[in-house]
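Quick start: read one record
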Amino acid sequence: MIKYKSYIPSKTDGIVLCFASEDVENELAIIPKTGETIVQGKILISLNTDYMAVFIDSEGNRIALFSRT
């Protein structure tokens, strides 16, 4: 990630980092084991079967995961 004096990680404001996944459930199974926090579990976000989940990483960054399954 980035470390810079003007960037302050936030759970509610600023940039959300987004990553594609084969299946969001795969990452959601690992996240609690690494001490990170799931903010939003897997949810359907479109009728085209797109799913997403959001978590806070160990540095306080909000990260969204997207998958088709």
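The chain has one domain: 16-67.
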